[in-house]
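Run folding on both entries below.
>entry_1
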Amino acid sequence: MKVAVIVFFLGAFLGGVCTYYYPEIDTNVTPFDRNGDGAADTQYIYRSDGSLKLLKMDRNYDGDIDDETEFDTSNLPVKEFSDDNFDGEFDTRTIYEFGIIKETLSDLDKDGEEDLRVFYNYGVMKKFEVLAEGEWKVVWIEK
C-alpha cells in the first residue's frame, strides 16, 4: 500500500511539472505536399484547443524549413521568421500586431545583427531604413 501511495504522488507530481513546463501540447500536426513530390513542404501545427499555433514552410522545396509563422489563439499571425537567402538560417523577422504586419527586420550581411528595418502602418509600408556605418539611415519614407 505504501508503494502505491508513493507511486501515485510521484505520478501526480510529474504530471504537474509537465503541465507547468509544457502547457500547450500540440495535438495535431498536419503535413501538406504543395508541389506533389511526395515530401511535406508545409506543416500546420495546432494547439489542443484546435487553434493554429505554428506554420512551417519549405518555400524552395529543398527539404529545409525556410519560414515559420507563430499564431495567437485567435489564429492571427504574431511573428514570422524566414530564411530569405535559403542558407539554412533565419535572417528576417517580421512582427505582426493584431494580425497585421507592423515591422520587418533583416540581417542581410549575416553578422548576427539586423541591418534593414521596414516599418508599416496598418500593413502599408511607411519607412525603410538600413544600417550604414553604424547608423540607421532612412532610405525611403512615405510623405
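>entry_2
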Amino acid sequence: MLCSLDAGSVKPQSVLFVLVVPAVLGLPRWQVRQAMRAVADRGEFRVMLDDAGLTVANAESVTPLSWPEQRYHLEAPELFPLLGGDEEIGVMTVLPKRGTDDPGRLGELIARHSSALPQATLKGFPQG
C-alpha cells in the first residue's frame, strides 16, 4: 500500500512518491518539447553531408560537425537520427529522408562513418 491514512496522517514516503515520480517521468517529454520549440523558432535548417562530416546551417548560424561527433545512427522509415555527444551532453541530428532524392545513398554515407544501433532502439520513434 503506497498511501495509508492512520488517524489523519499520510506517510512522508507516499507524498514524496506521488510528487517525485510524475516529475521524473514527465521531465524528458518536457525537455523534448522545449528543444522542438527552440528549433522551430530558428526557421528552416539545411544539412550538408560529405566524407568530412556534416554542416548544419540556418539563417542565423552554420555549425560544422565531424563524423566522430556523430558516432551512432538509426534508420527509421522516414528519417535517419544521428546520435553523438559525450557523457555530459547528448547530440541528436535528425535527417528526414524526404530531404534527399536518394535516401539509399544517404544511408550508405552515414553507415560508412557511424555505427548502426540495433533496430530495437527504434521503439520510441514513429514507425510511419
